[in-house]
Each structure stands twice: as C-alpha cells, then as structure tokens.
Amino acid sequence: MIQGMLIAALTLYGVGIAISAFRIIIGPSLPDRVVALDMIGVMLVSSIAIISVLQGTKAYLEVILILAILAFISTIAFSKYIERGVIIDRKRND
Amino acid sequence: MIEFVAALFMLGGAIMAVISAIGIIRFPDVYTRSHAGTKSSTLAVLMTLLGAFIYFASEQGFYSVRLLLGIAFVFLTAPVAGHLITRAAYRASVKMADTTIEDELRDVIKEVQEETKEEKENLQESREKTEEDVEQTDNKESDQERERE
C-alpha cells in the first residue's frame, strides 16, 4: 500500500518533470526556460527524497541539500546574465 | 499508521507538483508562469520533504537535520529566485500577455530614468568644466617650458 503510494508519487513527479522539460523546449524566451529549469531542480529534490524513502536509506539526503543549493545559484546566475549580459562584475578604473 | 500519513504527505506533494507543472505549461506569459513555478512547487517540495522526515523519524527513529535544512533552504530561496528571474525578464523587456491591462512599474521606471538622466547631465557639465581647467593649467605649463628653452 505505502510502496504503491510512493511509486505513484514518483510517477507523478516524473510527469511533472516531463511537462517542465516540454516548456524548456518550446519556451519562447530565455526567462521561460530558466523558470522551468528551476522547477525541474525543485522537483528533482523531492523525487530524490521519495527514492531514499523507497530504498530505506539515508545516503541520499546530502544530495537534496546540494541539489537545492545548485538550483538556486544557477537561477541567480542566469537572471544576472539576462539582466546585464555578464555574470561576474569587475570594478574598472576609469 | 504514521507511515501511511507520511506517504499521504508525499503523494499530496506529487499531486501539487503536477498541478504546478500544468500551470507552467498553460499560463500565457513568463510572469504568470513564474507564479505557478515558484509557489505551488515550493508547497510540493515542502510536503514531500516533510513526509520523508516523518517517515524516517517513525520508521528508523532517525531525525534528519538535513531534511529540515532542505525544507528551510527551499522555503527561503524559491521566492527569491522567482523574484530575481521575473525582474530580469522585465528588465530584458520580455513581452507580457495580450490580456494584461495594467503595468504600474513602467511609469515608475520612466520617472527614475529621467531623474538619473538629469543627474548624469549635471555630472557631465561639471566634468567638462574641470577638464577645461586642466587644459588651461597644461597650457600654462607648456608656456613656461617654452620660456625656459
């Protein structure tokens, strides 16, 4: 019963990730794609939590934190790139 | 019993994730899409991680701090990321949906731009003045050198 529910939840997450990947493919502008990418990262985090529950191990729990941090930083870098065209600003001496 | 509640949490989170995915494919422009992509998917990941936390706590007696940290981190960063990407989209002048009827931010940005334009002009004038001064002093120095020769 519980295992069936967990597998159903994992399948639903797979469906969600597939739909977001479709938005990445057809997205008309770059921010659309970045929003969908951020959402895929969040969904991957929770599907990894479900996988670690399914296998009964705590070994995957570090992956959750690292994946969340990476998704956040990549979104920030993309938004900076869209806004200014550069990612790392340098102070220039005029 | 508690495991069932945990599994129910995770299933509810998955349903929320599918709903937000439907939102991201159905909404008309990037601003509404980011609304669907950050809010409801945050709720989905919160419910799923909470279910995993309850499951590990009841099944193995293991209170995972990492899951709580993950919950706190996603809860803090998802709105920030959504705000940043929407702001970048607005600055890059991504088109709004055709049904949009009001854009209050445009007027404010126009005012601020005019103010900074005036400031820039003032700055330019003062800079030109100082450049003229510098040129005059340069001419004086060159005259003095010529006299010495």
From TrEMBL, chain A:
Superkingdom as given in the UniProt entry: Bacteria
Membrane topology term: Multi-pass membrane protein
Transmembrane segments: 6-26, 35-54, 60-82
InterPro entries: MrpF/PhaF-like
Subcellular location: Cell membrane
GO CC term, one of those recorded: plasma membrane
Transmembrane as UniProt keyword: yes
Keyword Transmembrane helix: yes
Keywords per UniProt: Antiport, Cell membrane, Ion transport, Membrane, Transmembrane, Transmembrane helix, Transport
GO MF, one annotated term: sodium:proton antiporter activity
Similarity section: Belongs to the CPA3 antiporters (TC 2.A.63) subunit F family.
Descriptive protein name: Sodium:cholate efflux system
Native source species: Oceanobacillus iheyensis (strain DSM 14371 / CIP 107618 / JCM 11309 / KCTC 3954 / HTE831)
Lineage, opening ranks: Bacteria, Bacillati, Bacillota, Bacilli, Bacillales
